[in-house]
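quick q for whoever's on today - can somebody do inverse folding on this one?? i tried earlier but teh output was garbage lol. tokens:
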């Protein structure tokens, strides 16, 4: 089976210099090798200085059968990141003090930095549940845009999991299977962390759900609660295509001033018709469609 995915996200569009992200992903399951390979390409642009990051990563995962319907998948990721900033869009203190349009940092304009970025992960799953963790930026690369400086990217820990509840009526599964999928994703990097927790309702060809992002019992500073957003998610399936849309309702102090966030996802899956029956029986992680 082949799968391609594209994603666009516009975060806080009402704020000048907001965050815009593009992503493309492709993966292939290699049944004869008990393996899977993948490719991810992302492009992020943020801030009035047009700080941009481009990331290309290759992924490999191997499947281990622990016992009947219980599987373990260790994985590795090898990536390369390129970062740059448009200094002409920034205003420095020497420009303000001298009243000049030119800055002593002007000679840095157009410079880029690149670095290798390594990650790994482990996933345990059954037909109903999954649980795993991943470590990003294992090599803590130097992401500084100034050659003489050092700015190490801290390792990021991700812990995620979920459970798929099949809905039944009169002890029988409906003709059109229905499920509720509850899931979470916890991330920690440096002194910051975040929890995403939510649930989906699925009944082909549609799905809908809601997610909460934040840690309400933790405040980084007095009076600044760690509440970020509620994300409303909906989508549908048409043939080999899946389409999804989500909107973030900001619940932090930015509130309506942020404009929320819009995210659009498109997924295309296809396979040789002769393999479709065997594919239906293969081990599939029961996570949410999006």
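ok took a stab at it. sequence:
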């Amino acid at each position: 089976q082949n799968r391609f995915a594209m994603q666009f996200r516009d975060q806080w569009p009402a704020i000048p210099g907001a965050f815009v992200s593009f992503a493309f992903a492709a993966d292939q399951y290699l049944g004869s090798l008990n393996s899977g390979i993948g490719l991810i390409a992302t492009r992020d642009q943020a801030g009035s200085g047009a700080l941009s990051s481009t990331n290309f990563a290759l992924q490999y995962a191997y499947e281990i059968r622990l016992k009947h319907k219980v599987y373990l998948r260790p994985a590795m990721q090898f990536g390369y990141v390129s970062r740059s900033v448009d200094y002409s869009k920034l205003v420095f203190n020497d420009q303000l003090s001298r009243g000049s349009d030119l800055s002593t940092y002007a000679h840095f304009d157009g410079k880029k930095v690149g670095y290798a970025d390594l990650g790994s992960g482990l996933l345990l799953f059954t037909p109903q549940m999954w649980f795993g963790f991943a470590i990003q930026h294992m090599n803590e690369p130097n992401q500084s845009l100034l050659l003489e400086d050092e700015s190490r990217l801290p390792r990021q820990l991700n812990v995620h999991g979920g459970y798929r509840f099949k809905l039944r009526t009169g002890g029988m599964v409906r003709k059109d299977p229905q499920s509720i999928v509850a899931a979470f994703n916890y991330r920690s990097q440096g002194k910051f962390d975040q929890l995403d927790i939510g649930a989906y309702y699925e009944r082909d060809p549609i799905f809908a759900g809601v997610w909460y992002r934040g840690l309400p019992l933790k405040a980084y500073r007095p009076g600044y609660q760690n509440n970020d957003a509620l994300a409303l998610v909906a989508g549908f399936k048409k043939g080999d295509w899946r389409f999804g849309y989500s909107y973030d309702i900001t619940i932090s102090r930015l509130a309506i001033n942020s404009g929320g966030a819009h995210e659009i996802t498109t997924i295309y899956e296809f396979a040789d018709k002769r393999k479709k029956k065997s594919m239906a029986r293969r081990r599939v992680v029961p996570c949410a469609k999006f």
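fwiw Residues 93-98 form the longest helix (6 residues). also The first strand starts at residue 2 and ends at 11. so keep that in mind when u check it
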